[in-house]
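Methods — Computational structure assignment.
A single polypeptide chain was analysed. Its primary sequence is given first, followed by the predicted tertiary structure written as C-alpha cells.
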Amino acid sequence: MNSFRVPIWATLYLWMLLCGFSVSVYAGNEVPVPADIRVTLTANPSEHLIPGEPIQAVLTVTNLGPDPVQNLIIQSASFVNEYDITAFDCQDFLLVVQDQGNGGYSYVVIWFAVGQLFSQTTQLDVGQSLTCNMTFVLTRAASLNYNVSFGLPNDYIDVNPSNDTGTVTLQQDVPTVPAMGKVSLAILLFMMAVTAAVTLLRRRRAGLPNGSLRPNPPPRTFHH
C-alpha cells in the first residue's frame, strides 16, 4: 500500500495551480453524471477506538446505470488534523490543501476514479465497481464520535443524489480512571490503616481525646 501523512502533501495545491490543473473541489461548474453512482464507506473497527489505532476502511463506487461514466471524482469531507491516512492501494488518490483565509486551512482527499489526469480507469461501466482500501488513524483532535465521509463533489449531478455519499461514524471510548487491582487496593487499605493508627497514637501521647484536635482543658477550680 502507498502511504502519506497530511503535512507531506501540503504543497500539492500550489503545484496543481502552477500546472494549470483544476479539480472539482475548486471548480464551480456543474458536471452532469449520466448514471446513478452509489458511494459506500465501511470501517473496521469503528467502535471503542483510541487515538493512533489503525482503522481499515473500504471506499467503494458503483455505477448503477443507466449509462457508462467516463468522468468521476470522489472526495472526502474537509478536515484539518482529526485523522491521518497511513496507507491506501488506489494509485489515483491524492490530498489537496484548501485555504480557509486568515491563515486557516483544511484538507480534502480526492480520488480521481474515472477519466481524470491521474486515473487508471477510463470508463466505469454499468454494474462495475471500483474499490479503494485505506488505513487511517484518528488523532487526539477528533471528537469522541467523529464522522468520515467520501462522496461525489457538490457540483457533480447524478441520477440519484441520495446515495452519493458514504459515511462512517468512528466512536472513541470515553477516557476513564483505570480500576485498581486487588493488590493495589490491599496496599492502599493497609496504608490508610497505618496512617490512622499513627495519628491515634500521636493524639494519645499529646493528651488529645479521639477525634479532637485540641487538648482537654484543665479542670476549673473555684476559690471562696
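Note: Helices lie at 12-18, 182-205.
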